[in-house]
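Can anyone check this?
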Amino acid sequence: MPLKDIRVIDMGAVVAAPYAATLLGDFGAEVIKIEPPGVPDAIRFWAVVEEKYQPVWLVASRNKLPITLNLKHPQGQKVFIQLVERADVLFENMRPGTLDRLGFTAEKLWQANQGLIIGRISGYGQTGPYSSKPGFGTLAEAMSGFTGLNAQPGGPPTNPPLALADMTAGVHLALGTIIALRGQKRREKGGQEIDLSLYEPLLSFFGPEFLRYHLTAKIAAPMGNESNFTAPRNSFQAKDGKWVALSASSQAPYERMMDLVGHPELKKAEGFRDNQERIQKESRKVLNLVIGEWIKSRTLKEVVDECEKAGGTIGPVYSMEDIANDPHVKERGSLTPVFDPDSGRTISFPDIPIRLLQTPGAIRFPGLPMGSANEVIYQDLLGYSPEEIEGMKAKGVI
């Protein structure tokens, strides 16, 4: 695997920084996940199933070696520095200054390992007037503009159904780390510090909306399933109560769609001749009406089949059950079986979406029990004897 020689210390909690470590682990990095003794990561207890299975933990902490370590204990701090000496990357998502107060400033970490890449995620970044405030993904989604725009017209702001800001920041941290590793290879030495806030990666996605405000002083309003930039775009309900999503903003798909729904005159009529005309409010109303009426008179299967024959761009709105049973998902291997050694059960995960054909990644194992890698890390990597490890347990070091 392409990252098999990279060792990552994951000091993060919950989703943001840990997700970056997960992505590197998918491609072979050795990820050491640190939890304080007796204080498990909170996501171990999110959405527990059957009083045993921890879906969020099993998926989010895959390919990681979990150890326990007390960073407030003097011996624990010495052990931590030993880990740093052997690592390439360290991730954390504490409030800015927390690691410094524990005695682990960037300078001290670089004294132990001059090439260490330190990746930090916090609510508002390491600098600025909000930097010391506690931050969570929900707050970052709101600050980025996402929550306010993610609503039906006239409806309340709507939070996303997943940890969007955390995972987006995690993806950016993983990318930043790969860039830093590449830069290190070119420079041959020297550490790097990566500073990511939770809100800025999402904000960067709204560049066009912000630029439009900057140029016109017009504030974008929520569009529901529609778009300020393309039309037609919406979700429609079929005769059998099921839903489809449609996007036909490019000219050729749009014209095919108008032929299909029986309104070829709307291909060249004023207000519909190109995308810039179609995104106007009155034009969108007409398109939603004619497309919606056509779809509502047919079942989901009829809609999809007829659209496919006509070269239309439409697709069903899936549930998790639909995904699990879809033949394309099955044949492509979008879901992969993973053996859980803790339960002895094979479970199904979404597979790694990045497909490197010559050096593919792999989900080797799911999230493991707390401290289950203590022996392999403390004994095999750091060289502690079984007696020393037991002594550290007794003193609350691990």
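Reply from J.R.: I decoded it. The chain has a mean pLDDT of 95.
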